[in-house]
User: Fold this.
Amino acid sequence: MTQALRHDSMRARNLGVVLGEVRKSGPISRAALAEITGLTKTTVSKMVGDLIDSGMVTESGAVRDGERGRPGTAVELSGERVAALGLEINVDYLSACVVDLTLRVRTRCAQAVDNRTASPVETMSHLQELAQKAVDEAQAQGLFIAGTTIAVPGPVDGGLIHAAPNLGWHDVRVPDLLDLPAEVDNEANLAALGELWFGSAPEDFLHVSGEIGIGAGLVVGGALFRGARGLAGELGHVVVTPDGPACRCGGRGCLEQYAGQDALLRAAGLAGAPGGVPGGVPELLERLRAGEPRPLEACERAGQALGVALTSAVHLMDPGTIVLGGVFAPLFEWIAEPARRTMTARLSTMRHTVPELTVSRLGGDAATLGAAGRVIHRVIADPYLWRRFASR
Amino acid sequence: MTQALRHDSMRARNLGVVLGEVRKSGPISRAALAEITGLTKTTVSKMVGDLIDSGMVTESGAVRDGERGRPGTAVELSGERVAALGLEINVDYLSACVVDLTLRVRTRCAQAVDNRTASPVETMSHLQELAQKAVDEAQAQGLFIAGTTIAVPGPVDGGLIHAAPNLGWHDVRVPDLLDLPAEVDNEANLAALGELWFGSAPEDFLHVSGEIGIGAGLVVGGALFRGARGLAGELGHVVVTPDGPACRCGGRGCLEQYAGQDALLRAAGLAGAPGGVPGGVPELLERLRAGEPRPLEACERAGQALGVALTSAVHLMDPGTIVLGGVFAPLFEWIAEPARRTMTARLSTMRHTVPELTVSRLGGDAATLGAAGRVIHRVIADPYLWRRFASR
DNA sequence: CCGAATTAATCCACGTTATGGACTTAATAT
DNA sequence: ATATTAAGTCCATAACGTGGATTAATTCGG
Assistant:
């Protein structure tokens, strides 16, 4: 239910509105902010003053909006004080990054670890080291870490990972294993948000994360759609052929059995081992470029299967556009065309526009960036909460 | 973007919060309202006074919350003043209803019209008559009609019906053909909302409307999910078998080809004609009850296909529960079991709870009721807007 | 080169809204 | 009958945004 407002919550919201507008409209004068938000110049001035005091905003030169008259002093987000830590646990690596309020990446580090063989405790201890390194570097730059988010490959329910089949984790309460207050979210969700904030994607899109599994994150009106229990977006298990090959999810003919990384490599005649040998995808790319028929055929079929699953997804969720990320990003050239063809054949009669298929520009970094970005966006939405911590 | 708040909008929101709580928590004292909303008793008292003045709330007897002390005077929604008109255009009938602020149905009328053979203008002129009758009756009861919504079978984009294949309508701007300010929305969407508000469904569910076509409306946290362009929920065209029979949507093997009303009747050996002969479903019910093997087999197959499509829907949208409405309501007994079996087999490994399948308790009335309910819920969310019109 | 016009930002008195403690009212318990 | 408890109202106060006046910094026209 919507919460009742009091004077302080009104102020908090308005502060968020003003800061959000500063973020959106770049360097902008107080007068223009007043115009856009509908608040008076007086109110905006006071708020901008507070935001400057708390180190979230700085003045930067002058702007001339009209032709005549006194020019305004522009204000913009300051990246010098508030920052966020994004962490990612994936099947074969860990990564961390620190992002400032302007969404500039200030620190970034990664480490190859096989988390399938390591225990959750071991993995988390590696992650702790990586996080500490990133935090130290950030503090050396004078940054204050407002919060941390961890991306994990699997459905998350309030910090608890009930089952992450690709990691082999069961009932792990991730934040408890880290010496840092942190929140946890699904890798596919955060990758979608990463694409939204760092990849200049539109306001409405479906981001497809092709990894060992295939996940998807739907963004509508700039907000992530999570479903009733936060488990939405499991594109990998959408039914492509009801009596197709058995899937580890218990179903048959799921998309993952046609376009998942393992299935794709196997169909291409590479790496029969589950999980794929290291270098599987680079090898596949090489053979595709060399024009070998079997890999080409494998991509064609995977693309068609993806097209079928996306057709169902479009009918059900009506995304604006579709962004292919993860391993589908390097494979875009070979996968997108058959997928697009399949979708167009099946959708064009009912809709006058079939969602466009585009490539992710972030690839594998999307989730880590999204994790940090989520914290930043929360601070911007409610700067009142953070003003004490951020101020010098 | 979220809007900046001023004193008046703060008051408007709080008034809505209080009224919403009155709706939700039935007869309730001012003190309890203050407790729940977090506002002070003073503020709540003033607001309740305003709401009583505008005829939206009445005092009703006393309530004793604790054991000792002065009992509170209960306030609850008043159904005596504010009401809403819901209209529905469907393939073979028109209907109208007037609902008051307490969601009690005050007037209800319907008319059988074959809208496939009638032109949009003819249909709308019939609807105008029906609406006028309902409005007159409501005014005779002293009710004030706060607004009108029209339910139509087909995707709607801001009042414009681009193409409603089941009606044979193209580019019809529905509100322009009615002598009444009204909004238009998709029948499947409004049926889902009707189920939410009138059928005591939970806060999260997917409502499946089995008519000639199969639509679905997803409700998450009490709000309808519409997708980027408002076209979400086309369950009927989710792919069940990629190389199945051709569908009028241009695809192949869509759910509608297995579980749509026409396909179902045909498979049961009834009514080869598209659209079904009148009495098709009652006849089918009779034969099912008689235990005829071919209709039973048809329902079994339709249920399995529905289960496959719902499996994809659950993976993508993660609904809490699933409500079967429209023709699936009377057929529930024969369709639900195979659908449930199929879903459980495919979903239970990945999720520890498979969404429950339940019957709609409203059947065909859901959309008309939802149309009226939408207006009521808007008034309750923002009573400030309506206080002048409603007040004595 | 200087005054008029124009726009930005700040200042200050004011109106609106919610607050919180005091007070009144109405019930139960002792 | 008196104390206790809780509901509802009253009133002075605080928080916040408003809007007009003022000051500041430009450009334009003569």
Notes: Chain B has twelve helices and 16 strands. Residues 6-8, 10-11, 14, 39-43, 46, 62, 64, 67-71 of chain B lie near DNA strand C (CB under 10 Å from a C1'). Residues 29 and 74 of chain B are 4 Å apart (CA to CA).
